[in-house]
């Protein structure tokens, strides 16, 4: 890859001050690959041979930097020499906002930070908490390295599902635990909480499956019992066994003397229940 291609990998430094941190990180990596990072991190040595090597690296670094900043960024720089280190420091002073109001704004965001319920803990660390701390550090605030403050902010930012872990950390520690210790304990709690949640879900699924199987078994048992009673009972409505006993008259029940008229001996005779109405009419004309 050519030098010009390397320069065009990422956008040049322009008006946006928030882009400076990203730009400076990428550009240090580029200068390191081009073996001229010492030109912006070290002062010019005193020895003749060392000065010659340094001047060569300085020329390369100065050329790379000027090719990758816009006219607006260049207007913020006022230097008389072609020193890559001096150019780098001027850009740093121009774009890094070290004002007290900016630090206060970032610190307020950090204190008000809250992790949403259900959010991945490692994602909360990497994309939110650590990002704000890095931004605070780049703004020049000493509070970015205040470990007790960061520990308090971390515990306060946890959701309700971490309340037991936060209480345990506060009650068990004789002295203020380190920031990394609190992070580790909270991560262990998150892992335990996830495993317990999955176990409860598996148990609930198993109980539902057992209940469904039991209900199906009882239904099949009732159907089987009903089929057995139908086959053994002669007074059911099957075509082959659909007979009952009733007197010749149309009265209700069985036996002698039932009904409005009595004919014959009153001995009950079998007849199909299915045709009971027609049978009564035929015998009472």
Question: Secondary structure elements and their pairing?
Answer:
Elements (H helix, E strand, L loop, with lengths): L2 H5 L12 H14 L4 H4 L6 H20 L3 H5 L8 H12 L4 H12 L9 H18 L8 H10 L6 H10 L6 H54 L10 E4 L22 E4 L3 H8 L2
Antiparallel strand pairs: 1-2
Description:
- The protein has 285 residues and is mainly α.
- The chain folds into 3 domains: 3-95, no CATH class; 100-193; 243-283, no CATH class.
- Helices cover 60% and strands 3% of the residues.
- It is built from 12 helices and 2 strands.
- It has helices at residues 3-7, 20-33, 38-41, 48-67, 71-75, 84-95, 100-111, 121-138, 147-156, 163-172, 179-232, 276-283, and strands at 243-246, 269-272.
- It is elongated, with a radius of gyration of 46 Å.
- The model is unreliable at 236-250 and 257-262 (pLDDT under 50).
Fill in the keyword field for this structure.
285 residues, mainly alpha, two-stranded antiparallel ribbon
Based on CA atoms alone, the radius of gyration comes out at 46 Å
Give the spatial strand order of the biggest sheet. Answer: 1-2
**What is the averaged pLDDT score?**
75
Query: Strand fraction band?
Result: under 5%
**From N to C, what is the helix and strand string?**
HHHHHHHHHHHEEH
Number of domains: 3
Helix content: 55-70%
* Quaternary assembly: single chain
Bulk shape:
elongated
State the secondary-structure class: mainly alpha
Instruction: Give the CA-CA distance, first to last residue.
Output: 117 Å
**How many helical stretches?**
12
Strands, total number = 2
